[in-house]
Amino acid sequence: MNKKDKKYLENYSIHDFDIPLTSVDMVIFAMINAKLNVLLVERVEAPQQGMLALPGGFIDLQKDEDITATAYRKLYEKTAIKSPYLEQVETIGNKSRDIRGWSVTVLYYALINVDKIKQQKSQNSVWMPVEQALKIPLAFDHIELIEKAQNRLREKTLYTALPVELMPELFTLTELQTVFETILAKKLPIKSFRRRILNANILHATDKSKLSGKRHAQLFKSTGIDREYYFPRTLVL
Amino acid sequence: MNKKDKKYLENYSIHDFDIPLTSVDMVIFAMINAKLNVLLVERVEAPQQGMLALPGGFIDLQKDEDITATAYRKLYEKTAIKSPYLEQVETIGNKSRDIRGWSVTVLYYALINVDKIKQQKSQNSVWMPVEQALKIPLAFDHIELIEKAQNRLREKTLYTALPVELMPELFTLTELQTVFETILAKKLPIKSFRRRILNANILHATDKSKLSGKRHAQLFKSTGIDREYYFPRTLVL
DNA sequence: GTAATAGTGTCTTTGAGACACTATCCC
DNA sequence: GGGATAGTGTCTCAAAGACACTATTAC
Fold first, then answer.
1. Of A61, B70, B95, B197, which residue is 20 to 30 A from B158 by alpha carbon distance?
2. Does the beta-carbon distance from A1 to B104 stay under 8 Å?
3. In a shared domain, residues B170 and B211
């Protein structure tokens, strides 16, 4: 820091500026009962007290190193999960979204392995199918935020293997396909799907199998690299 | 607004919270002399007075309806251009990027038609090749911000026709290809490129042509729909 | 004519989609 | 054997890449 900056800082106060309220909101997805679910919490304080809302809140200027840390902290507070897939979607800011005035929120979404949601320490939080969440009144503009996160997930499902992040430790290709189909709201051809996934080399075949009615299905597990994998071609909706 | 919220607001002050400084930064790209250039401005006030920086600044809580409006306003102030291609890249926030303390910036990039940059009212602003801008010291973390915007542009150039936004009113396919190649830092096969662009149906062939040395080249113009167009396949770097 | 730039013909390759087919299991 | 679920064989099609080729102009 140079001398001029030092001098400037001595006379600086953040309260000299009119600044907006800045927060982080999280859309946390998990597959429950073959449906894409989102985690909602009941607001315990005004404004919008009592309404369901996305988990989120303000940056802790002492504890949080950066804004991603804020997102991870919020996620951990609600789910006790440390390192899920987390991605920033978009930042929304305007005059009208919060009654307190000009407000900015940095929107993230996370994909949670369904195995882990049982260990959650949720008190006043509730999992709800996305479909349903979009129909009930939510606090602020949170309906819109869920739609934005869902659209991002949908788009990325067309050319990445991200939905693997929603799977339990072991899963069959048919189960994985069902998750893809749920996100895309569209049936996919079996043969193409298997070829696509298997050629990608992002799964590890196990010698275990699962019986879900009739013929045994082979169980696979994630190698963890699905986060970086891009299919050579995009599916078309 | 309900009664509880009204009461809450009466006792509310934004200064009750420790909040970060939130700003908007712009990476404005244009093609100049066959190079990708970025617009920089000299900082006239502390902190970092005298250094080159990205155009940007704070949200005007009175004037700006939403954060996109802030981005357009900043852009207009520096270039007098009203509606270029504008896209939000990412929001960066941490303790260390600004000496004033915890600071958040919403990063946008814009693509400017080279025809229009002559009408600019820039006083203390300067166009500089991206290459060069990344090598000199810039204010705050602006080197990193330019890299993020450049990466986004590069990625999108692999599967969209966005570079058309950088072209003048009339241009040849060879010129367009050169712009793609500059952004990607990679030669592209002529035949594939032309087929790809022409099949996309995003350009309008004119009956004019241009002589740049030897054989005349046909001139095309944008239909404006390149912003929404996605090629059926992604190029591989 | 030659050099230089613009533009085409056409073969190969890759991976998605269609769809009929086979395999394995329980009853 | 029948029904249900898992999984394969193989053809077609679209678009990218390779590369040799032709076209048009200035000189």
1. B70
2. no
3. yes
Note whether A190 and A146 are same-domain residues.
no
**Residue A209: which CATH number?**
1.10.10.10
User: How many domains are contained in chain B?
Assistant: 2
> Is A61 part of any domain?
yes
Q: % helix / strand / coil in chain B, to the nearest 5?
A: 35, 30, 35
Whether A102 and A93 have beta carbons less than 8 Å apart is answered as: yes
Do B138 and B181 sit in the same domain of this protein? no
Overall pTM surpassing 0.85 (yes/no): yes
Q: Residue B193's domain spans which residues?
A: 158-227
Per-residue DSSP letter, B96: S
Q: E strands of chain A, at which residues?
A: 21-32, 35-42, 52-53, 56-58, 85-94, 103-111, 125-129, 171-172, 203-211, 216-222
Domain stops at, among B133, B156, B179 = B156
Q: Same structural domain for residues B35 and B146?
A: yes
- The answer to whether A44 faces chain B, any CB pair under 8 Å, is no
Q: Which residues touch strand C (CB under 7 A)?
A: A 188-192, 195-196, 199, 211, 214-216, 231-233, 235-236; B 172-174, 190-191, 194, 209, 212-218
B173 DSSP 8-state letter: H
- Search chain B and give the residue with CA nearest A88: B90
Q: Are B117 and B79 in contact, with CB atoms under 8 Å apart?
A: yes
Q: Which two tokens stand for residue A15?
A: 């309260």
A-chain CB neighbours of B140 within 8 Å are none
Which residues 167-196 of B are in CB contact (within 8 Å) with A? none
pLDDT in tens, chain B (237 residues): 576 666 655 665 556 667 899 999 999 999 999 999 999 999 988 788 889 999 999 999 999 999 999 999 999 998 888 889 999 999 999 999 988 889 999 999 999 987 887 655 567 889 999 999 999 999 999 999 999 999 999 999 999 999 999 999 999 999 999 999 999 999 999 999 999 999 999 999 999 888 777 899 999 999 999 999 999 999 998
